[in-house]
Amino acid sequence: MNHLDERINISEQLLYYVWRLKNFDLTALKTTTGQEVQIIDFGQRNVDSGPDFHQARIKIDNQLWVGHVEMHVKSSDWNRHRHQEDKAFQNVILHVVYEEDEIITLPNGEEMACLELKNRIAPGILRHYRYLMQAQAWIPCARNERVISGPALRAWYERVLVERLANKTNRISQVLEKTEQDWEETFYRLLGRNFGFNVNADAFEALLISLPRKILFKHKDKLLQIEALLFGQAGLLDESYEDDYARDLKSEYEYLRRKYSLIPIQSHLWKFMRMRPANFPTIRLAQFAVLFYKTAHLFSKMLAAKSVKEIHHMFESDVSGYWKSHYTFDKSSDKKSKKLGKNSIELILINTVVPFLFRYGQVHMQQHLIDRAISFLDDLPAEKNQIIKHFRSLSFPVNSALDSQALLQLKSTYCDSRRCLDCAIGNSILKS
């Protein structure tokens, strides 16, 4: 930890950290004017607008005060932030600062009680903090020996995992609002989005919005009609075709489009370039068609599934006969099975099934579904990508999708923003 820039700014986040954990010298506390300070209750952290800690209980010269605590790096920040004009700050009983560079006067002419922490934070904490804020490594703590492991690290993984699931379920809530709380329709749309696997996700979702599940459900026993509706609404039946299968689809679709007054999406939304043929949107649509034909009540069946194996079985259907020897219309290829691959099914489980189980369990207060969602992740193998590869190289345990999902959240939400003070791993380093 050599060559640290001692001038690096102390942040308010560091002050919140030492205050919340009482991690500073608490002996003989006095305000900057010499008044004795006894902290009975440090208060509750406020993450919304207003003072930083609410409902603190503090004795100043033996007089008990109950109110809020506001924190700044420098006392002059009080005026710079215009708190003197904000009624929310009228009940501040103590101004806690790293350094008092200006005396703050209240509207009644009295000086605000100010506690300076500049010489009360342990040098080790400041040294580790500066290191984490300046580190040029892939993640701030990459070169630190972690002092958190076992159950403590596992608990942290589970906490950030829940944060990740909460973020993913925000999207579910938005679509539920649009579908008037229709869980089957919402699952249908977002499952389809995942069948697009990033590149064609938007196109797949747009297709299923244009083709409500209730219409497709009316034809759940006729695979050709399901395929006709999907390929037609995808805008992929606009040309003239030579193959009888494609002609049959087009004829069937024209009838159904008039019957339901359907408007297809634009075919140019689909991307075929630089893709492996097995991932062409035509193949993904064919796979989705067979899945719906086999299991029209997708959401209900997913809720009833007790194991990852059952979910896998749901998605293992092969494409219909034509698509076993084609990747696009009118262009034949060697005949082969085109089932969804194991990795693709696992990604659907991670990105669609698990978040839906989690959210449904939350909304309907069914803890067993929340537990099952987390259990499914623990039963699935970890994803393979560059971020997880980096974490493995730093000896972070990665034994399941629970671990990999937690680490993806950790990287994007904590490491990239240097939120080390909010991270259990960063906390352990500061305390070491």
Radius of gyration: 29 Å
Average pLDDT: 94
Q: Please summarize the sheet with the most strands.
A: 6 strands, mixed
How many separate structural domains? 2
Strand content: 5-15%
SSE-based structural type: alpha/beta
Number of strands: 8
How far apart the termini lie comes to 14 Å
Global morphology:
elongated
Give the low-pLDDT segments: none
**Oligomeric state of this protein:** single chain
Written as H for each helix and E for each strand, in order along the chain, the element string is HEEEEHEEHHHHHHHHHHEEHHHHH
Account of the protein in words:
The protein is of the alpha/beta class and 432 residues long. The protein folds into 2 domains: 12-134, no CATH class; 161-379, no CATH class. It is 47% helix and 10% strand. It is built from 17 helices and 8 strands. It has helices spanning 12-20, 77-80, 123-134, 150-178, 183-195, 201-210, 213-217, 223-233, 244-260, 281-294, 298-304, 308-314, 342-363, 367-379, 386-393, 401-415, 424-431; strands at 37-41, 44-45, 53-60, 63-74, 92-99, 114-116, 326-328, 331-332. The strands form 2 sheets. Strands 1, 2, 3, 4, 5 and 6 form a 6-stranded mixed sheet that branches. Helix 4 packs across helix 13 (342-363), helix 5 (183-195) packs antiparallel against helix 6 (201-210) and helix 8 packs across helix 9 (244-260). The longest helix is centred in the middle third of the chain and has 29 residues, at 150-178. 34% of the residues are buried.
